[in-house]
């Protein structure tokens, strides 16, 4: 139960006890009805972090199975438009070898959000899956960008970007000769 809900219930109980102590007439049925209305007005909104954890595990199933066709519909409209399904199939989702292990997904966020006139305009979460080890003795990290709200560009809502980072033997992301990070993007 959210802290706000607990606070409201405590306030109702305090008022109820205060009225009883002062010998005011209280309609207990009305109080029960009011409390019921308060609880009925609270939407059963699932925890976004739990939803994103499930999504990340589904993304990893796609990578483990090298299944670009199941990954593709998980992408936002923008990411689908910028990704070529046939290229994803040919490149085997940019992972060399079969995935033999990986860490649990880590969900962080919201890492950015903006409001205009009290309305949420954008909210983004980041998901990281570390220590992806393959049968080719390669190591990777996957970073996912997920927008729960983006009123600036609604085509970006959902799984908007997946970056696949090869990791070197020192545990660092590969860089080219100019020091630029080497990675593959979907979206």
Can you walk me through this structure?
The protein has 187 residues and is an alpha+beta fold. It folds into two domains: 3-41, no CATH class; 49-186, Nuclear Transport Factor 2, Chain: A. It has six helices and six strands; from the N terminus they run ααααααββββββ. The chain has helices at 3-21, 28-41, 48-64, 68-71, 77-82, 85-90; strands spanning 99-101, 106-116, 119-134, 139-150, 158-167, 184-186. Strands 1, 2, 3, 4, 5 and 6 form a six-stranded antiparallel beta sheet that branches. The longest helix has 19 residues, at 3-21. It is elongated and about 80 Å long. The mean pLDDT is 82.
Name some characteristics of this structure.
187 residues; alpha+beta; Nuclear Transport Factor 2, Chain: A; 2 domains; six-stranded antiparallel β-sheet; 6 strands; 35% helix
Question: In the CATH scheme, what's the topology name of the largest domain?
Answer: Nuclear Transport Factor 2, Chain: A
Query: What is the mean pLDDT?
Result: 82
How many domains?
A: 2
For the report, how would you describe the main beta sheet? 6 strands, antiparallel
Radius of gyration: 24 Å
> Strand content of the residues, in percent?
25-35%
Give a count of the beta strands, DSSP E runs of length 2 or more.
6
Question: Spans of 5+ residues with little confidence (pLDDT < 50)?
Answer: none
H/E element string?
A: HHHHHHEEEEEE
The span between the termini is 37 Å
CATH class of the largest domain: Alpha Beta
Helical percent range? 25-40%
CATH architecture of the largest domain: Roll
Shape: elongated
Structural class call reads alpha+beta
Q: DSSP helix count?
A: 6
């Amino acid at each position: 139960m959210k802290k706000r809900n607990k606070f409201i219930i405590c306030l109702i109980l305090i008022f109820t006890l205060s009225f009883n102590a002062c010998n005011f007439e209280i309609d207990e049925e009305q109080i029960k009805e009011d409390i019921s209305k308060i609880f009925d007005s609270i939407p059963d909104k699932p925890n976004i972090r739990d939803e994103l954890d499930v999504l990340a595990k589904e993304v990893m199933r796609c990578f483990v199975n090298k299944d670009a066709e199941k990954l593709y519909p998980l992408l936002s409209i923008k990411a689908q438009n910028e990704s070529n399904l046939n290229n994803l199939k040919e490149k085997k989702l940019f992972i060399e070898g079969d995935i033999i292990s990986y860490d649990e997904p880590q969900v962080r966020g919201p890492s950015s959000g903006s409001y205009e006139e009290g309305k949420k305009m954008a909210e983004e979460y980041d998901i990281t899956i570390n220590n992806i080890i393959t049968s080719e003795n390669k190591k990777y990290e996957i970073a996912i960008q997920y927008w729960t709200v983006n009123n600036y560009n609604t085509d970006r809502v959902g799984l908007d970007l997946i970056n696949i980072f090869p990791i070197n033997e020192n545990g660092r992301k590969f860089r080219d000769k100019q020091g630029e990070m080497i990675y593959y993007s979907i979206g």
